[in-house]
């Protein structure tokens, strides 16, 4: 019994030290393999239409098949409320690429062109933020 309790205490200490170590390690962008981020915000013509939002999200899921995309994230405004947060958009689409050249290839990929053709009637406004990693 004492050995089992002692083992649990040691285990808890090890887990606690590991967690503290992870929290103390700062994130460094140089460790991310992606060099180029493409972040798109969409405002729908009919922002309260759930089917339009679903169609846009479905289109983005299909768009994720473009081969030069390293990673992607589809999102909606988070339930955060601070003065600096803009929650007016309907859907966001964040992509990472290994290079600007890969992002350029994405722009002319037939899958991307089809997405624009099929989904652009849904949106009233699109804003894009591109950024490159600092070496």
Automatic annotation (TrEMBL):
Give the matching InterPro entries. Dabb (IPR013097), Dimeric_a/b-barrel (IPR011008)
Q: Which residues form a coiled coil?
A: none
Q: Where are the transmembrane segments?
A: none
Pfam families for this protein: Dabb (PF07876)
Give the Stress-response A/B barrel domain ranges: 36-131
Q: What is this protein called?
A: Stress responsive A/B Barrel Domain
């Amino acid at each position: 019994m004492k050995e089992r309790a002692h083992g649990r205490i040691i285990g808890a200490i090890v887990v606690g030290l590991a967690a503290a170590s992870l929290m103390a390690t700062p994130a460094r962008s140089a460790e991310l393999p992606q060099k180029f981020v493409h972040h798109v915000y969409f405002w729908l013509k009919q922002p309260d239409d759930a089917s339009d939002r679903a169609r846009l999200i479905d289109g983005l899921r299909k768009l994720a098949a473009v081969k030069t995309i390293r990673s992607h994230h589809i999102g909606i405004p988070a339930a955060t409320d601070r003065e600096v947060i803009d929650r007016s958009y309907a859907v966001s689409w964040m992509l990472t690429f290994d290079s600007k050249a890969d992002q350029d290839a994405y722009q002319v990929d037939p899958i991307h062109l089809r997405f624009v053709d099929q989904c652009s009637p849904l949106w009233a406004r699109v804003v894009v933020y591109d950024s490159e990693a600092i070496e």
